[in-house]
Amino acid sequence: MLLSLKGAFPPAILALADGTVFQGNSIGAAGATTGEVVFNTSMSGYQEILTDPSYCQQIVTLTYPHIGNYGVNLEDIEADKIHAAGLIIKDLPLVASNFRKTATLSEYLVAGKTVAIANIDTRKLTRHLRTHGAQNGCILGLAQGETVTQALIDKAIAAAKAAPSMSGLDLAKVVSVKQTYEWNQTEWKLGAGYGVQITPKFHVVAYDFGVKKNILRMIAQRGARITVVPAQTPAADVLKLKPDGIFLANGPGDPEPCDYAISAVKELIETGIPTFGICLGHQIMALASGAKTFKMKFGHHGANHPVKDLDSGRVSITSQNHGFAVDEKSLPANLRPTHISLFDNTLQGLARTDKPAFCFQGHPEASPGPHDISYLFDRFTALMEKHKNA
Ligand SMILES: NC(=O)CC[C@H](N)C(=O)O
């Protein structure tokens, strides 16, 4: 614990809907925020996590105790703003150092109007969430000079209780772009930064349900130009763009109420155009194929989750961020399990047996996390190649 921090930052309160209260220091914007409190076990990558649109209406607690020591930069962003509803950490180092650093984590949170709390026992909080399941919470970040009172604590508990449940929430259309745009940026390289795809072989249409930029970069890197379309784009409009492949992005909220996407994807898969889905995209492909999804107890959020490829036997360490999963008992005959989580045996990958369509629950684009399972992007490219040459 860096004792000097306590005086430098005003107090903050974290209240859970079940009445559990933590007191710490406000390291972000002053004010109140509510959301589903989830824990993420990644040791680094807090900027990518904060900007991941899939964290919309979720407050993230990082289990790694020391967060902020490399500051933030202009490159490690998965969207153009912070999407997480709030941040909870143990210890904020007072010195941030990195050759790309443009600001400290605290400055970034303030600029992004994000409420955040430090100096709480994140191990205790995580054990609580693991035992009782993810639940709603509220962070109250006080202004300099304000003090914690019982009335403020009661206000935070009431706000946590009043926050909407994640089950049944359609957030994909909330975070999605409103206008179609073109994407050609490729992966980041030390010394060169991000590249540009100037000789594309394929045209991919990507549904933006809350897409992470690194997914688009990894698809572009493999020879594609990408047209990113809003979540509610009808299948007919996608077909007019004459795609060689269709991509279904990650995104926040419950997949089940996304009926517009489920029906469009059902139609698109039938055309035989290669289709690849990640996370929410995986869940939507499963729903479009007739399977069911369910809410997990506390989900998977981290960068060290072992996943087994059932075809090759190969185990990959993967990046994960989901609170819902596909029910393996609900799979129709034409949907085959391809990957499972070695943490809890839940479904991680699926492939259609009758169409060139497959999907993955975790994050092959990492950002943050390991790249063990980036071969899924190569699989998508290979399907497009085959389809183009057929
Ligand atoms: N990262 C994602 O796409 C998350 C999918 C979905 N919102 C879930 O929590 O399961």
UniProtKB/TrEMBL annotation:
It comes from the Bacteria. L-glutamine binds at residues 54, 251, 253, 280, 283, 321, 323-324. The active site is at residues 279, 363, 365. CDD domains: GATase1_CPSase (cd01744). Pathway: Amino-acid biosynthesis; L-arginine biosynthesis; carbamoyl phosphate from bicarbonate: step 1/1; Pyrimidine metabolism; UMP biosynthesis via de novo pathway; (S)-dihydroorotate from bicarbonate: step 1/3. InterPro entries: Anth_synth/Amidotransfase, CarbamoylP_synth_ssu, CarbamoylP_synth_ssu_N, CarbP_synth_ssu_N_sf, Class_I_gatase-like, CPSase_GATase1, GATASE. Residues 10-140 form the Carbamoyl-phosphate synthase small subunit N-terminal domain. Its EC number is 6.3.5.5. It is an enzyme of class 6 (ligase). It catalyses: hydrogencarbonate + L-glutamine + 2 ATP + H2O = carbamoyl phosphate + L-glutamate + 2 ADP + phosphate + 2 H(+); L-glutamine + H2O = L-glutamate + NH4(+). It holds the Pfam family CPSase_sm_chain. Residues 1-194 are annotated as: CPSase. SUPFAM superfamilies: Carbamoyl phosphate synthetase, small subunit N-terminal domain (SSF52021), Class I glutamine amidotransferase-like (SSF52317). GO terms for molecular function: carbamoyl-phosphate synthase (glutamine-hydrolyzing) activity. Keywords: Amino-acid biosynthesis, Arginine biosynthesis, ATP-binding, Glutamine amidotransferase, Ligase, Nucleotide-binding, Pyrimidine biosynthesis. Composed of two chains; the small (or glutamine) chain promotes the hydrolysis of glutamine to ammonia, which is used by the large (or ammonia) chain to synthesize carbamoyl phosphate. Tetramer of heterodimers (alpha,beta)4. Belongs to the CarA family. Small subunit of the glutamine-dependent carbamoyl phosphate synthetase (CPSase). CPSase catalyzes the formation of carbamoyl phosphate from the ammonia moiety of glutamine, carbonate, and phosphate donated by ATP, constituting the first step of 2 biosynthetic pathways, one leading to arginine and/or urea and the other to pyrimidine nucleotides. The small subunit (glutamine amidotransferase) binds and cleaves glutamine to supply the large subunit with the substrate ammonia. This is Carbamoyl phosphate synthase small chain. It comes from Variovorax rhizosphaerae. The gene is carA.
